[in-house]
Amino acid sequence: MTPQHAGAKVGSLPLERAAMSSPRIYDLPTRVFHWTFAGLFVAAYTIGSTVDDASPRFVLHMLAGGLLAAAVLLRLVWGVAGTRHARLSDFSLSPAALVGYLRGVLSGQARTWAGHNPASSWAALVMMGLGLGMAATGLAMVAGVAPHAVEEVHEVLANAFLAVALLHVAGVLVHVLRHRDALPLSMVTGRKRGIPAGETDVRPHAGVAMAFVAVLVAVGAGVASRYDASRGQVTLFGQTLMLREADEGSGERSGADDEQAEHEAHAREERAEDVPHG
């Protein structure tokens, strides 16, 4: 396996004995997805945990979840058409490689990977799968076709996503403390230190990154433009989706107001009948 291929590792020689460089490993679309994916999940989870279902603000939870799913779909496309370390085929998903990587991290052995290491490969794949699962269950819920159990599944998926994300962050922190290689910066600058000199820069593809953002903005704007705030629903492709639950308190007050208005109208009619006609 050469450094240019999936999960290439620098393990045959200590880092200080190998010719190292800091090539661009991750293109801009991959980095934009990484932080967009993280931000949308944090937004959706926070709103879902702190805002009541009947609140007008709860629609933002639905919007963030929908955009998260759209981002995953775009990432899967880029996982086929993107640069070498953005491709899904670059993910190192061998269980043996994962065990070996974790042992290396815990023992402090100076090893690195050109692309996604086994732990981040599994984390990315699992979180994308969970993201699509949350979107599917959420869509079933707002479409009114899901039994109550689906809501429980939706919450389990969200909590599982949170657990995997926290494990991922913890793993990155342990890696940084063990190897002192500023690994998180690779998802900011795209460059990774301690890579063999033969590894060349990938193309940045700034245009693709801009298109990625533009698609997400267009999707969000399209949903927002079709949202009926008074009813808490949006119509997409001929399907009406309830993005927030009806406010039961408002319903009760509305019923009481209607009953009072009907009573007053009836009283006016009775008074009119009692008026003598000349």
Written description of the protein model:
There is one protein chain. With 278 residues, the chain is mostly helical. The protein is built from eight helices and five strands; from the N terminus they run E-H-H-H-H-H-H-E-H-E-E-E-H. The protein has helices at residues 28-50, 59-81, 95-107, 118-142, 148-179, 186-189, 206-225, 248-274, and strands spanning 20-21, 195-196, 227-228, 233-236, 239-242. A hairpin with a 4-residue loop joins strand 3 (227-228) and strand 4 (233-236). The longest helix is centred in the middle third of the chain and has 32 residues, at 148-179. Mean pLDDT is 83; it is low at 1-18 and 246-258.
The count of DSSP E runs of length 2 or more, i.e. the number of strands, is 5
Distance between the termini: 108 Å
CATH topology-level name: Fumarate Reductase Cytochrome B subunit
Q: In percent, how helical is the residue content?
A: 55-70%
Q: Treating each run of at least 4 consecutive H or I residues as one helix, how many helices?
A: 8
Task: Write the H/E string, N to C.
Answer: EHHHHHHEHEEEH
What structural class do the secondary elements suggest? mainly alpha
Mean pLDDT: 83
In CATH's first tier, which class applies? Mainly Alpha
Q: What is the second-level CATH architecture?
A: Up-down Bundle
Which strands sit side by side, in order, in the main sheet? Answer: 3-4-5
Radius of gyration: 27 Å
Q: What composes the largest sheet?
A: 3 strands, antiparallel
Shape type: elongated
Domain module count: 1
